[in-house]
Amino acid sequence: MTHTLIYPNSTRHNERGHLEIGGCDVVELAEKFGTPLFIYDEEAVRDQCRRYLEAFSSRTDDFEVIYASKAFSAVAMLQIVDQEGLSLDVSAGGEYHTALVAGFPRERIFFHGNNKTRGELEYALENGVGFVVADSFMELDLLEELCAARGLRQKILLRITPGVHAETHSYIQTGQEDSKFGFGLVEGIALEAIRRAHTSEYLELVGLHAHIGSQIFSMEGFQRAIEVLVGLIKDAHDQIGWSCRYLNAGGGLGIRYTEEDSPATVDEYAEVKVRGLEEAMTRVGLPVPRVLVEPGRSLVGKAGVTAYRVGTIKEVPGIRTFVAVDGGMSDNIRPMLYEAKYEAMLANKADEPEDTLVTVAGKHCESGDILIRDIEIAKPEAGDVLVMPSTGAYAYAMASNYNGNPRPAVVLVKEGQAQLIVERETYGDLVARQRPLEGGQAGDR
Ligand SMILES: Cc1ncc(COP(=O)(O)O)c(C=O)c1O
Fold it and tell me: 111 is in which domain, residue-wise?
């Protein structure tokens, strides 16, 4: 059975007993575009962008919602986000390039990263990036050198590590002091960074940024991070005479992957980010900066599902039944990386009772390549189309070619129409950039 809590709202079972999303029969999509296939419901993405904008605009008129494109960076997706009026976060030169190809307005792009290379920074500066979020003293030096050489004065924010532990998997906590990201508060490091940037001829320090982690359900960590940042803003104001115009309080709002998950709503999130900041700024007697938020997962996660084709079914008597699909860790590493939990159903048996306990395995040469351990689905057979919901964020984005698996195709569905937005890779793509051994014999292509 489908549950709209974890599937896009347009999801239904059609008269053929198939799963339908955005008016498209998922079994037909699998036949037409092949599997594994990422399917995004366009209206679900747009709705979520609007939900964010409404939640913030009903509380303040000085804000920006920035899509963290690392969650899923594709030209068409960035164009949707632009049409909806959001700004953009890129975390590497390639994501910036994708944004440029999408025609995303450069002045609304924020460039992140704890180790931006000289080449990436040059590319961003020469192509007019709106803001650089500087992460280290070395980066400040490099930025100054590059800006000086080009006669530029670049708007920047500083990434601060507020020393806050987010309640989430340790791999996606980023706000604790012991972190590779940003300027910590101990021994006045963050304050020193503000002083450095503020007095630079080539840098215009407009604000601060902090991102404490991802897939966060409770709002307490965000509140604490805001308070820490406001303390720093106050110190910087009193000791350096610097005024903070932008406060980017990061992304991080969690989503439901399973029925049991219970994340806060976008409204609750906006309340903490806007009211929490207003109250903290009022307490220190300083003007409230523009509130920037940077969600990734919560904008696109629920809008996307993955469709796989069932292949080998193996029963281990008395232990479990493995249902292997034609993808796995190369299109969704999250179960292996963070023990992430997912649900699934058979799209061609949407109305059949889900009474068979199985483990959904991938096709890669790793025993750990298990997508879902112990889930009840309709009785599976080879050829069924298995759908995993809530795969719109950090699945395709982290895809690899492990074991020589071409990366899947991605389609956008809306009102019964499906548009291919990322083509499936071919075997040819896998070797397109490889060169044979000099003097060796080339085989068939
Ligand atoms: C700096 C920064 N901003 C925003 C995000 C987006 O986080 P989420 O997808 O949890 O909203 C991330 C994710 O890791 C991040 O590192």
Answer: 42-300
